[in-house]
Amino acid sequence: MNKILVPVDFSNTSSNALSYATELFRGSATEITVLHVYGTKSTALLMKNINSVLEKDAKRRMDELLENVQKKHPDLTLKTKIIKNYAVSAIASLGDSGHYDYIVMGTKGASGLKEVFLGSVAGGVISKTSAPVIVVPAGYSFRSLEEIVFAVSDDPFSDANLLEPLRKIATMHQSKVKVLHIADKKTPQIEKALTAIEDLNPSVDYAFGTGDTNKDLNDYMMKDFAGLLCLIRTKKGFMHRLLNESVTLKQTFNSPVPLLILHD
């Protein structure tokens, strides 16, 4: 059974991420835990009363949200968690617990990839958890996963087993997988990525561009029709390059599709 954690703050963005999760894992045995984290910076004298109000309001809104989801998906198994904590640490901790296969989160239309990963709750969670994270752009509507793009660096990963979440989704949707290497020239290291998922019969594509990885990846995804982009987070890998290159307003990566982030 797939066990999915979906944090919500009752915004349209988080509700949309929940909707995406229900569609992504539809047709498979799935249990979705909908999480709301609340907190207050009030003084100690006021904290107890305010927390009580926040918790009561959260329960009401959670009931309304789940009622709407259950009407559309009556066979879906839904659980809820409402906890008082800091959002990033609470979500990351639950991701590290081993109880969930994926975390699915929305992101509020950040202008670029740096903003997605460094300036949002989703970014904080990605930097702190070891669980696979699916980041859903605000307003994105689920569409058939006919193709998944798996973007890799010269040295893509150390352990092929970390690709299991990618394999699971690709198998579930019978998706074609395209391994994308953005580089100055072809390199034999790309074979490592191809061998690790050879059972999925991946194709390979190279994007020889400007040397600005953000711009090159953005340009590629804007003309590709993939339904999901998979990236691996490493200390010296592809995402390290993405987050450390200079970024301008005209050279940012604002993903048109959801991102699947795996951790090496």
Search tags:
Rossmann fold; 9 helices; alpha/beta
Helical segment count: 9
How are the strands ordered across the major sheet?
A: 3-2-1-4-5-10-9-6-7-8
Task: Sketch the major β-sheet.
Answer: 10 strands, mixed
Unreliable segments (pLDDT under 50, ≥5 consecutive)? 110-119, 245-252
**CATH level 3 topology of the largest domain:** Rossmann fold
Number of strands: 10
Question: Would you list the SSEs in sequence order as H and E?
Answer: EHEHEHEHHEEHEHEHEHE
| Backbone structural class | alpha/beta
| CATH homologous superfamily annotation of the largest domain | HUPs
Describe the protein:
There is one protein chain. The chain has helices spanning 12-24, 44-72, 87-96, 113-118, 121-128, 164-173, 190-196, 213-223, 238-244; strands at residues 2-7, 30-38, 77-84, 102-107, 133-137, 147-152, 176-182, 203-207, 228-233, 259-263. It has 2 domains: 2-137, Rossmann fold, CATH 3.40.50; 147-263, Rossmann fold. The radius of gyration is 19 Å and the shape is elongated. Strands 3-2-1-4-5-10-9-6-7-8 form a 10-stranded mixed beta sheet, sandwiched between helices. The chain is 38% helix and 24% strand. The model is unreliable at 110-119 and 245-252 (pLDDT under 50). Helix 3 (87-96) packs parallel to helix 5 (121-128). The protein is of the alpha/beta class. The chain is built from 9 helices and 10 strands.
Question: Topology, pairings included?
Answer:
Blueprint: E1 2-7, H1 12-24, E2 30-38, H2 44-72, E3 77-84, H3 87-96, E4 102-107, H4 113-118, H5 121-128, E5 133-137, E6 147-152, H6 164-173, E7 176-182, H7 190-196, E8 203-207, H8 213-223, E9 228-233, H9 238-244, E10 259-263
Parallel strand pairs: 1-2, 1-4, 2-3, 4-5, 6-7, 6-9, 7-8, 9-10
Antiparallel strand pairs: 5-10
Helix pairs in contact: 3-5
InterPro entries: Rossmann-like_a/b/a_fold (IPR014729), Universal_stress_UspA (IPR006015), UspA (IPR006016)
Domain UspA: 2-137
Protein name: Universal stress protein
